Amino acid sequence: MTTPILEATGVVKQYGKFMALGGVDLRVMPGTIHSVIGPNGAGKTTLFHMLTGTRPVSAGRIVFEGKDVTAESDYQRVQRGIARSFQVTSLFPNLSVRENLRLAALGTSPRRAMSGWRLPTGELACTEVVDQVLDRLELSHVANAAAGVLSHGQQRRLEVGMALAARPRAVFLDEPTSGMGVDDLGAMKRLIRGLVQDHTVVLIEHNMDIVMDISDTITVMQQGKVLMEGAPAHVRGDPRVRAAYLGNMITGGKA
Amino acid sequence: MMASGKQWLIRYRYWWLVLGITVLLPLMMRSGTLATEVLIYAMAAMACNLLLGYTGLLSFGQGIFFGLGSYAVGLALTRFGGLPMPVALLGAAVTGALAAGLVGWFSIRQRGTYFVMLTLAFAQMFYFIAYTAPGLTGGDNGLLDIPRPSIAIGGHALIDLTSSWGFYGFVAVLFLIVFALVLRVTESVLGRTLLAIRDNEERALAVGYNVRAFKLLAFVISGAVTGLAGALHAMLTGIAPLANIDYHASEMILIMTVIGGTSNIFASVLGAAFYVLLADWLSTLWPRWLMLLGFLLIAVSLFMQRGLWGLGASVATRLRGVRSAAATQEERA
After folding, report:
1. SS percent in chain B: helix, strand, coil, step 5
2. What is the mean pLDDT of chain B?
3. What ipTM goes with this model?
């Protein structure tokens, strides 16, 4: 058995008296797509905040590639190979698509961005990575448009691209399809499925068609705790999961 | 590969505009002192713009750095046996940078309203420190009799700065250098990252940038430039008054920046020139001229948020639109 790329143990997050996460354990295996599902308010996004360092944990331990990263903040974890997308699109709306990705690519060596003399050309333009990501996102034709004027579907793809441009070892995608129309879902599904060649993918997703179809492992959360974990077929058949979802959401996808 | 002449013009357009202004001011104005003041406040405003326009930080601390620059150059030239002027100016810039580092280090821990309140609190604090330390600052009277030494090499005076136009020339050269450097900063990877931080701080953090470190760096650069501007102002007037470190100095620098527009640093030069010249003209007409300035600021805030630069740009676009519309009409006819 290989060692997990990410191992979270007893992660607790309290906001005042409210216990958002009540001691979550999670082991993510390298080279897999690991989905986290659960009803609204189950603590999925909070767990993501803990894993990527967007917010500090109240208790618990997070180990990434053998290193304890619990005390590190988000920008430090990027240097370790962790990158994320947000549930609510978070781009640099006034900057061009290309510039958005350039900034994301250079974020892995942020000291080089502290030069007040060097222009963002040559090596600092990160052309190779940016072009690769643009290609993958199918956004090359709008590379010079401001991110803020893209369609919702394009913005959601760019949101994923912001994580990819850092060439992370683990990419955390928080509901990449949120608010997307049916027409855009196929492209997003292809995109996520393609990622696993180069990255470990941790995914929060409500669209069960996508989750059941592309995940290697699924963790089901409920009320800040892990309800169960397993392969898609196993999760789909579990009566506790059906109960948590009131039996009406796990429908799509092949068996 | 050689860029064509036109590309060269466009690539360095802001620089040409600024060069034009520094050459035109002496041709159009009778007072060298007023012309120099324009350039000095232009430096302070573009430093302010680096924070406001490029990093999204509304700092009321600019007066601190301006005032400390004045005091630093005053002390350096009148005490310690009178240090060489370049050293004194450098000292003023370093003083501004250090003060900005201190103020920034505390203030950027907060965002939005609390950030603004912190810079305001520091502005008040430094004002009262200056007020209560007359041994260093001259207190209410300010530091008096600050000289304008000639530029000399090996005891031979090369350029005399005692005449107002002589001093203008000296300030103009410094101004052009500072403008070119700040312009470079805004176009550099640092400037582009600052713009990203202004746009979306959360995202900047999530892609790996230590936002606080970047903001602090912006503060330090801004403080250095503002300190230098304050020093030149003290040399211009011969005194480092308490007014230079007053909260009103911050306010004035901010107003110039906002009136000019925050989309590029040349706009700040416009804003400073407009403010200084308008204030000079209005004050001869009516002692309550500050009220008119209030109306102007209201108009800018309500109707032209991109400032004078934005106004000029939209007029230019409209003219071009009219011209191209006329051209298509002709084509049709």
Report:
1. 75, 5, 20
2. 90
3. 0.90
